From TrEMBL:
<comment type="function">
    <text>Catalyzes the oxidative decarboxylation of 6-phosphogluconate to ribulose 5-phosphate and CO(2), with concomitant reduction of NADP to NADPH.</text>
</comment>
<feature type="domain" description="6-phosphogluconate dehydrogenase C-terminal">
    <location>
        <begin position="179"/>
        <end position="476"/>
    </location>
</feature>
<dbReference type="GO" id="GO:0019521">
    <property type="term" value="P:D-gluconate metabolic process"/>
</dbReference>
<dbReference type="InterPro" id="IPR013328">
    <property type="entry name" value="6PGD_dom2"/>
</dbReference>
<keyword id="KW-0521">NADP</keyword>
<feature type="binding site" description="in other chain">
    <location>
        <position position="191"/>
    </location>
    <ligand>
        <name>substrate</name>
    </ligand>
</feature>
<dbReference type="Pfam" id="PF03446">
    <property type="entry name" value="NAD_binding_2"/>
</dbReference>
<keyword id="KW-0560">Oxidoreductase</keyword>
<dbReference type="Pfam" id="PF00393">
    <property type="entry name" value="6PGD"/>
</dbReference>
<feature type="binding site" description="in other chain">
    <location>
        <position position="287"/>
    </location>
    <ligand>
        <name>substrate</name>
    </ligand>
</feature>
<feature type="binding site" description="in other chain">
    <location>
        <position position="103"/>
    </location>
    <ligand>
        <name>substrate</name>
    </ligand>
</feature>
<dbReference type="InterPro" id="IPR008927">
    <property type="entry name" value="6-PGluconate_DH-like_C_sf"/>
</dbReference>
<dbReference type="GO" id="GO:0050661">
    <property type="term" value="F:NADP binding"/>
</dbReference>
<keyword id="KW-0570">Pentose shunt</keyword>
<dbReference type="InterPro" id="IPR006113">
    <property type="entry name" value="6PGDH_Gnd/GntZ"/>
</dbReference>
<feature type="active site" description="Proton donor">
    <location>
        <position position="190"/>
    </location>
</feature>
<feature type="binding site">
    <location>
        <begin position="75"/>
        <end position="77"/>
    </location>
    <ligand>
        <name>NADP(+)</name>
    </ligand>
</feature>
């Protein structure tokens, strides 16, 4: 008799911890791994004394599961997912559910949902955030895909997830690839948060000349206010961690940041969608700049920047300004991320619940923070909110932060300390609130050299320049009057 509530394929650290988490919540889990010796090792060690059962083949795994069968894949994104799907499908029946819990690219999930639904099977692409600890004790879960799958997996997902104020950090994101899409944007925002924190560290270290222990104290204080978050918390723990010689270990880590691609996917998606997600883009480029370490070292020897002068101002005020600059830049990053989700949902006819997304990010995941509760509140008040900057709470917060935000960036420029994420956040803010931008000159240039046409600013029409028309002007007097293409804003 089948007794398994859910099966899980992939016994790397995330898979093992998620199995133990589900077991703790009262679910009977069947574990399988391609290398079956790992199954035996897991059952004899980490899972010893639990109700977890093992399987040594796909057939055995499927045979031990209650209908509708529910199987989570926690394997490397890409061909491995398709390979396991092809192994599973011959043994499954109509209504059975395959769940991909890896970091798959959302177009692959869209494809898999369609392919499996034609076979009568249900497919879910679920973001799983929180790393090793989250998987073990409660992650943030972002499932999406075949809607009929949600009632069957809802209890398992919501009991397994992190809980914040009695609410599960797991909810249905939407149809098709929505779950993996939301996780992708989450990871892009994570890139932005990490870059902003790194820039704040840099300006405290190189700008004010503070020791890691002093900087840790500052981050710990910030973590008691509006910046209260998992990433700020781990930052001051990292800053305080000492090597065997008593020196901060952080000072011995090579300044070359790695990445697995989800931040890049978010930036590419933003470019494709025409949404100015500038902060995540800069965070990705900052990592790629860090990667060319040897070239930067050569540049350091031949390119001269400004002479660094000791800070003579009010240090406490400066640190308070930096806190506000970090907070305001973070608001901009999330504003951009939610703008991107809104545009993609419109394009793909998804029904994303932005308040729910913010709520499930409050716990279990890498970007969990008090701040997300404020975002949830904004979208609960107005589910159709066009921009977080139109919400009264965030509009007031950014207004309060502006003076310090500008002072920090100005001082960093004078010192020659790069703040790409802080700077692009402020540039977006100033651009977003500008009624008039110099894009009129760009349109004039495009029409001049390529006859790409332009449109007339409302109120400036005349018999020659008509409203709503794509206009080409013979700027030189010896060019033609045929335009190259229609107007494209």
């Amino acid at each position: 008799m089948a007794t398994g509530d859910i099966g899980l394929i992939g016994l790397a650290v995330m898979g093992q911890n998620l199995i133990l988490n589900m077991n703790d919540k009262g679910f009977n889990v069947i574990a399988y791994n391609r290398t079956t010796s790992k199954v035996d090792h897991f059952l004899a060690n980490e899972a010893k004394g639990t109700k977890v059962q093992g399987a040594h083949s796909i057939e055995e795994l499927v045979s031990k599961l209650k209908r509708p069968r529910k199987i989570i894949l926690l394997v490397k994104a890409g061909p491995a997912v398709d390979d396991f799907i092809s192994q599973l499908t011959p043994h499954l029946e109509k209504g059975d559910i395959i769940i991909d819990g890896g970091n798959s690219h959302y177009p692959d999930t869209i494809r898999r949902v369609k392919e499996l639904e034609t076979k009568g099977l249900l497919f879910v692409g679920s973001g799983v955030s929180g790393g090793e600890e989250g998987a073990r004790y409660g992650p943030s879960l972002m499932p999406g895909g075949s809607p009929d799958a949600w009632p069957a997996i809802k209890e398992i997902f919501q009991k397994t997830s992190a809980q914040v104020q009695g609410e599960p950090c797991a909810d249905w994101m939407g149809e098709s690839g929505a779950g993996h899409y939301v996780k992708m944007v989450h990871n892009g925002i994570e890139y932005g948060d990490m870059q902003l924190i790194a820039e704040a560290y840099d300006i405290l270290k190189r700008g004010l000349g503070l020791h890691e222990d002093e900087i840790a104290d500052i981050f710990e204080k910030w973590n008691k206010g509006v910046l209260d978050s998992f990433l700020v918390e781990i930052t001051y723990n990292i800053l305080r961690f000492k090597d065997d010689d008593g020196e901060p270990l952080l000072t011995k880590i090579l300044d070359q940041a790695g990445q697995k691609g989800t931040g890049k996917w978010t930036a590419v998606n933003a470019l494709d969608a025409g949404v100015p997600v500038t902060l995540i883009g800069e965070a990705v480029f900052a990592r790629t700049l860090s990667a060319i370490k040897s070239e930067r070292t050569r540049a350091n020897k031949v390119i001269v920047g400004p002479e660094k002068e000791a800070f003579r101002g009010d240090k406490k005020q400066f640190i308070d300004d930096l806190e506000q600059a970090l907070y305001a830049s973070k608001i901009i990053s999330y504003t951009q991320g939610f703008m991107l989700m809104r545009e993609t949902a419109k394009e793909l006819d998804w029904h994303l619940n932005y308040a729910s997304i913010a709520r499930i990010w409050r716990g279990g995941c890498i970007i969990k923070s008090v701040f997300l509760g404020d975002i949830a509140s904004a979208y609960e008040k107005n589910p159709n909110l066009e921009s977080l900057l139109f919400d009264g709470f965030f509009k007031k917060a950014v207004h309060k932060a502006q003076p310090g935000w500008r002072r920090i960036i100005a001082q960093a420029v004078l010192w020659g300390i790069p703040l790409p994420a802080f700077s692009t956040a402020l540039a977006f803010f100033d651009g977003y609130r500008s009624d008039i931008l110099p894009a009129n000159l760009i349109q004039g240039q495009r029409d001049y050299f390529g006859a790409h046409t332009f449109r007339v600013l409302p109120g400036k029409e005349n018999p020659r320049l008509k409203a709503g028309e794509d206009i080409h002007v013979n700027w030189t007097g010896h060019g033609g009057n045929v335009s190259a293409s229609s107007y494209n804003a």
